[in-house]
Amino acid sequence: MSDTALRRVGTTIRNKWTLERLLGAGGMAAVYVGVHRIGRRDALKILHPQAAQSKEICDRFEREAHAANRFRHPGAVEIRDIDVAEDGAPFLVMELLDGESLAERERRLGGVPLAEVLGFVAQVLDTLGAAHAQGIIHRDIKPANLYVVRGDSRGAPPSGGGERVKVLDFGLARIRQDSSLQGELTRMGIVLGTTPYMPPEQAKGRDIDARADLFAVGATMFRLLAGRHVHEASTDFDLLLKMGKEPAPPLARRAPHVPRDVCLVVDRALAFDRDQRYPDARQMLEDVRALLRGEPPPYASRLAEGLDLDAVTQPARPWPGAPDAVSASTTLQGSAPTALSASGPTHVDSIAVDWSDEPPTSIDSVTVEWSGPRAARREESIVVEWSEEPEGGPPGRR
After folding, report:
1. Handedness of CA 180, 181, 186, 187 (dihedral sign)
2. pLDDT tens figures, 312-370
3. Tens digit of pLDDT for each residue in 166-223?
4. Which residue, 188, 192, 205, is CA-closest to 390?
5. Does 99-365 match 3-96 at the fold level?
6. Quick one: how far is CA 283 from the chain centroid?
7. pTM of the prediction?
8. Please, where are the H alpha helices in the chain?
9. 3-state secondary structure at position 387
10. Average pLDDT rounded to a whole number, residues 114-139
C-alpha cells in the first residue's frame, strides 16, 4: 500500500470523518474505515492524488457515483454521500461491510463447497439482473468483488438467516475501463485494468453488453469449483493472448468431481461466442435455482441435447492451427493453480496487442508496446493490472 494512502490514517476529512484504518488500496483509490463525528462508522473511498489531478476523472467519478447510487438493491453497496476532501480528492461514503470476499474465503478454507457457490451465484445473478434492467453493466465481476456478509443495513439476509453477497464497485469499473481515460491514467503513472475473469470480447477491447457479466460469473464459478482460472499461462502476455483467442476448457475436464448439470451451466456461461451464452441474467438464474433444487438446468439442458459439451465453449470460427484449448490434466477443488498464484501475476505497465480476426502465426506478427507513463498507441489495446483484489479494496472490516 502506498505511503500516501497510509499517511491519511488518523486525519479528519471535512471536519466529519476521522480515518481510523486503511482497508485497502488499488491503482486509483484507497478505502478507509471512517468514523463520523456523530459516531457512525462508514467506508470512505478516496481517489489517489494522481487521479484527483484530472478534472475529467473527477467529473466521471462523480457521475458514476450518482449512477451507482440510483441502483438500489440489497445486493449492491449503499452509497451514502459524495464529497471532496480538503486536498481536492473526491471521495465516496459507503456502508461499512462486515465479512469477507469470496476470494478471501477460498484462500482461508482452501475451496468453497458447491452448495455455497450455487447459493452465492444465485444472489449475484439476482443483483446483476436488476442492474442490467437499468442499463448498468458491472464489467468487473470476480471473487474479490463479491463480498459475503451476514445481513445488511437495508434488509434481512436470504431465507431469514443465511449470508448475503454484496457486489462491490458498481459504476466504478466503468471508469477504470473507459478507453477515453486510459491515456490520461497511464500518463499519470496509474496502471489499471481487469482480471482473468473477462470474456474474449472485453479482453480485445471491443464493445461489451450484459453477457460479459454472465461470462465473468461463469469464470468465477470455474475458479471456485476447479481451484484454477479459466485460462492460465506463465507470462502476462501469453495469458492475454489466451483470453482473447482461446475458448474456455469444459469445466468437467478441469474438475471431474463437479456434477454434469453444474458443468452445463458453467460451460454455457463461458461460451466463446456471446450469442451462445445465456441471453440474460434471469435465464441463468433460473438454471442455478434449478440446480439448488436438485433439478436439471432447463435452459442449459435444452441447448445441450445432442451437443458435444466441448462445442459450447468453442469459438464460432476457430482459427487454423490453434493449440489445444485444454490439457489432459485435472485439478480438484481447493488445489492451487498450476501456472498462476491465487493473486495472479504481477502487473505490467501496458500491453498493446493487435487483435486481428486471424491468430498470429509468429510472435513477430503481434505488436507489443511496453510503456511507462505513455499511453498505448494502438486503437484496440488495453492496459492490464493482474490483481485478485478489488480496486481500492472492499468497504469492509478486516
Report:
1. positive
2. 555 444 333 333 333 323 333 333 333 333 333 333 333 344 444 433 333 333 333 33
3. 999 876 555 444 545 455 544 544 444 447 898 999 888 788 899 999 999 999 999 9
4. 192
5. no
6. 21
7. 0.73
8. 3-7, 49-52, 55-70, 102-109, 114-133, 172-176, 179-187, 200-203, 211-226, 236-245, 251-254, 260-269, 281-292, 298-304, 309-312
9. coil
10. 95
Q: How crowded is residue 386: how many other Cβ atoms within 10 Å of its Cβ?
A: 18
Tally the residues of the chain. Answer: 398
Do residues 374 and 5 lie in contact, with contact meaning Cβ atoms separated by under 8 Å?
no
| Set of cell numbers at residue 124 | 449475484
Instruction: Write down the domain spans for the chain.
Output: 3-96, 99-365
Q: How far apart are CA 164 and CA 263, in angstroms?
A: 24
Q: Are the beta carbons of 246 and 325 closer than 8 angstroms?
A: yes
Q: Closest Cα partner for 398 from 91, 1, 36, 90?
A: 1
CB atoms within 10 A of CB 108: 10
Task: Report the CATH architecture of 99-365.
Answer: Orthogonal Bundle (1.10)
pLDDT class for 395, splitting at 50, 70, 90? confident
* Residue 83 annotated to the active site: no
Please determine, looking at this structure, whether the domain spanning 3-96 carries the CATH number 3.30.200.20.
yes
- Cα separation, 165 vs 289, in Å, equals 16
Q: Is residue 39 classed as helix, strand or coil in its secondary structure?
A: coil
Q: Which of 140, 152, 169, 236 is catalytic?
A: 140
Confidence of residue 18 (pLDDT cuts 50, 70, 90): very high
